[in-house]
Amino acid sequence: MVPVNSFAGKHLLLGVTGGIAAYKVAELVRLLMQEGAVVQVVMTKSARRFVGATTFQALTGRKVFTELWDTDTANGMAHISLSREADAILVAPASADFIARIAHGLADDLLSTLCLARNCPLLIAPAMNLQMWENAATQRNLTTLRQDGVMVLGPDRGYQACGETGAGRMLEPIDLLAATHRFFQPEYLDGKRVLITAGPTFEAIDAVRGLTNRSSGKMGLAMAQAALEAGAQVTLVCGPVCLPFPAVHRLIHIVSAGEMFAAVKGEVSNCDIFISVAAVADYRPAEQHASKLKKTAKDITLTLVPNPDILQYVASLPTPPFCVGFAAETDTVERYAEEKRKRKKLPLIVANHAVEAIGSNESTLTLLDDEGAHHLPKAGKNIQAGLVMAHIARLYDKYRG
Length: 401
Ligand code: C5P
Description:
Blueprint: E1 11-16, H1 22-34, E2 38-43, H2 47-50, H3 53-60, H4 78-85, E3 88-94, H5 96-103, H6 110-117, E4 122-126, H7 130-134, H8 136-147, E5 151-152, E6 156-159, E7 165-169, H9 173-184, E8 193-198, E9 203-204, E10 210-211, H10 218-229, E11 233-238, E12 250-253, H11 257-267, E13 273-276, E14 283-285, E15 304-306, H12 310-315, E16 322-329, H13 333-343, E17 348-353, H14 354-357, E18 362-363, E19 365-369, E20 372-375, E21 379-380, H15 381-400
Parallel strand pairs: 1-2, 1-3, 3-4, 4-5, 8-11, 8-13, 11-12, 13-16, 16-17
Antiparallel strand pairs: 6-7, 9-10, 14-15, 17-19, 18-21, 19-20
Helix pairs in contact: 1-3, 1-9, 4-6, 5-8, 9-15, 10-15
């Protein structure tokens, strides 16, 4: 697996406190390392009841610190030196007790002392039982921490290890990765003009019937939202979908591939990046009847003619924007997607499995570029969109020097 490297050069101090979600943090460490982060783990005493320090030591290749008074550290001041090396401290899971202690400025173990002595941002990912989360004391402590500039990531709702269901579950590792990434690079597309196509197209047969596909538009809209969050100026050209739209700068509704083509031609000279997420119909009926066709007892034949390939047109312009394609395939996904990337001369194509991706909230994506294949773990489309957008921004900078 080739790292996407979105945390290259970043030093993260990862604090692990006592909660069953601590076991999931091993996966978070793996994801962060894969993205190029340097991860230094610090564990509390109760965290070590849930996971062994050896697990994190093996994953990070660095000694795991647990004690305030560590004679191995230069001048015995781990509580100062560790936090000086860090670009941020992330505490995951953050237990109710730990949250209470740092909200009150207590510093009675290494991790709480590091938090108090820090000169870098602090992010916490709470994880606790539903009642502990809802308790007024916990909520008061969180308000205090937010007022102190601490970033609170999550928690999620769902099934809990104690058997109850509700708020308090730690965010999944992939969600924590994306949230931490957004924190580090909040506006990495600042001022860039991004044109996105999304949703299906509808090719009319007559006044009421037509040909379309099962694209929901979820991925395209998630990409538009991710581009907005990255600070871009976003124009969205969207086919018929039943979803709330993100607050893009310009929204153009279209129905057919022909209309999408016209809209893209009208906008393309004003964009730096073109992301073609739409599931454009490859064919349209040769004839479109203005009134409703009458039912007959006989077979009818529908002649289809090819639609223009919008992405190929844009990528072949004399000075094209940075073009990104999406390829949904049912089999041999990566090979077909890479062939498409070469044929359409794209720096990047995002491959996914059509059956899994179409209409669903989750997908498993592979990014194919000149460096090879970058596999993203299965996650919600909004999370995936943030990671894809970060990858696009990095490639864009590389291509445009
Ligand atoms: O060739 P295929 O349709 O599988 O390629 C997928 C990519 O090409 C997607 O990014 C899609 O938005 C784009 N495309 C297009 N116009 C078409 C067909 C596909 O822009 N007529």
